[in-house]
Design brief:
Flavocytochrome B2, Chain A, domain 1; Butyryl-CoA Dehydrogenase, subunit A, domain 3; 17 helices; binds protoporphyrin IX containing FE; five-stranded mixed β-sheet; single chain; 509 residues; globular; flavin adenine dinucleotide binding; acyl-CoA dehydrogenase activity; alpha+beta
Length: 509
């Protein structure tokens, strides 16, 4: 590594002309001469700090990542002074209180073992390294590239999104974790780490559609279909969507109108599907159709007669949310998933418990990220000569945010523990209600956290780049988790109805 030059503060103070302008941030000296005319904040703010220490002013207006991006203007460090501010490196866990799950901040936990810690550390590094690319794609609204999807595939992270199961058994996951060890705590960590990107649209587009649709092939696909498609989907070479909802019907699967007419060797499908995540760029659609005596599930490959149109939603077009039209599309018998007219079973294999668990983990993580953002901002932002954190109203908002995030995390961990120790049938019997209630609670929590975080960040929470960019994403997109995978009202009602079923007939006040 090249040793940086050492300067005294007095030496820096002599570089104040526009064509020869130096500034100090922490213990580092930057030469702004070539950058000043390109500075997005204009020439004047930099001129004001010419030759001076701009640390406090800089951190009042920029995220730390700006320094990493413009590292090339660094020319030296201050003689005899050490850094007071740590520059976060890819893979680092935060040391800010409540910014990580407590077990990852040195607190005791009955749940986590070495495999979970190793996995989180390995995954954090990968996610941090891919973060800038993910954020660029999400804000441009682009289709996540094949190269990007394949990077996830190479680390087996598409397979990890689907949850614990045999598809992970012969692979090694980040942190050198054998896939066989992958349990619902690893799974929770997967969804939490990806949520830290603050790109809910892109994550939905890259992983969401596949996570909820692939189980239909894994559980009900014919062996030849499975053998051919699963490797392509888990490596990121192909994309897949679940196509159930229609303009006429959301959760009410029985009322779908997309129709499959039996013809020789297969089916002829006609109909429309709406709100299909990943649909705009999916190669395959696990599609609910009406057949002669019931609902069936067909795997439809993109071909002539399949049209996908983007639906403009509040989150990034990278989600690939689509309106899908099937017009006289021939689907061979080999692509029937499960048994004709018994598609409900296949729909159930999508495992709504797992989908909801994923949404819960993402919600808690996005809210926890907001806690860290707000805590840092409140500590460094000065208004009327005082740091924000010195205002009791700000501390009160932070307290509410922290308490609600921690309570949701603790409940999520309890659910993960139950999922680890119950088979599918027991989970379906005992956990549908609690998971429904937790999803309802987690997204209500997100609503409150997004609201408080916005008030703490002010106008910056309404700005897509800069200091408040994560808060802006949270407040614009948190409603997706409150609606997708079962709306809050349905989740809350499901929780209580399940509890009523288990209410003892002999219980009285
Ligand atoms: C290494 C030195 C610096 C670099 C690389 C840099 C870079 C940037 C960048 C990339 C932005 C756009 C940020 C965004 O959208 O979030 C920005 C905005 C800005 N910068 Fe700097 N900057 C530097 C130093 C300074 C200093 C010393 C000041 C003095 C106070 C300053 C004041 C501003 C202001 C006022 C804005 C606009 C902020 C806003 O819209 O809220 N910058 N700077």
């Amino acid at each position: 590594m090249v040793e940086l030059k050492k300067f005294t503060r007095e030496e820096v103070s002599r570089h104040t002309a526009e064509e020869d302008i130096w500034i100090i941030i922490d213990n580092v000296v930057y030469d702004m001469s070539k950058f000043i005319d390109m500075h997005p904040g204009g020439v004047f703010p930099i001129l004001e700090y010419a030759g001076k220490d701009a640390t406090e002013a800089f951190y009042g207006m920029h995220r730390q990542e700006v320094l990493l991006k413009y590292n090339r203007y660094k020319i030296g460090t201050l003689e005899g002074e050490t850094a007071q501010i740590t520059i976060r490196q890819p893979g680092d866990n935060s040391k800010v209180p409540y910014a990580e799950m407590s077990a990852f901040l040195g607190y005791k936990s009955p749940y986590y073992n070495d495999s979970h810690f190793r996995y989180q550390a390995g995954l954090r590094k990968i996610c941090d390294e891919l973060k800038a690319e993910a954020q660029e794609c999400d804000s441009a609204g682009d289709r996540p590239s094949d190269e990007f999807a394949k990077k996830l595939g190479q680390h087996h992270l598409l397979a990890a999104h689907v949850g614990p199961g045999p598809w992970l058994h012969n692979i090694i996951l980040p942190g050198n974790v054998p896939g066989k060890e992958y349990d619902y705590f690893h799974d929770m960590i997967t969804h939490q780490e990806f949520a830290r990107w603050g790109t809910s649209g892109l994550v939905a587009g890259l992983t969401g559609g596949m996570t909820i649709s692939l189980p239909t092939i894994l559980n009900y696909g014919k062996p030849a279909l499975k053998e051919k498609l699963v490797p392509l989907l888990l490596s990121g070479e192909k994309r897949m969507s679940l196509a159930i909802t229609e303009p006429y019907t959301g959760s009410d699967v029985a009322s779908i109108r997309t129709n499959a007419k039996k013809v020789e060797g297969g089916y002829l499908v006609n109909g429309v599907k709406k709100w299909i995540t990943t649909g705009r760029f999916a190669n395959y659609f696990a599609t609910a159709v009406k057949t002669e005596k019931g609902i069936s599930m067909l795997l439809i490959e993109r071909q002539d007669g399949v049209e996908t149109k983007a639906i403009k939603t509040a989150y990034s077009p990278s989600a690939g949310t689509a309106y899908v039209t099937f017009e006289n599309v021939f689907v061979p018998d080999a692509n029937l998933l499960g048994v004709e007219d018994q598609g409900f079973r296949v729909v159930l294999s999508v495992n709504f418990n797992h989908e909801r668990f994923m949404l819960i983990a993402q919600s808690v993580s996005a809210a926890r990220n907001a806690v860290e953002e707000c805590f840092k901002w409140a500590m460094q932002r000065k208004v009327f000569g005082k740091r924000l954190i010195e205002q009791p109203v700000i501390r009160n908002k932070l307290a509410k945010m922290i308490a609600s995030v921690e309570s949701c995390q603790t409940w999520t961990e309890n659910i993960a523990y139950q999922m680890n120790h119950m088979n599918y049938a027991e989970q379906a019997d005992k956990l549908a209600g609690p998971i429904g209630l937790l999803k309802y609670h987690a997204t209500r929590m997100m609503h409150d956290v997004a609201d408080d975080a916005c008030q703490i960040f002010g106008g910056r929470a309404l700005t897509k780049t800069g200091m408040g960019k994560y808060i802006e994403d949270l407040q614009r997109t948190y409603k997706f988790n409150a609606i997708l995978g079962g709306s809050e009202e349905i989740m809350a009602d499901l929780g209580v109805r399940q509890a009523i079923k288990k209410f003892p007939a002999d219980a009285r006040l």
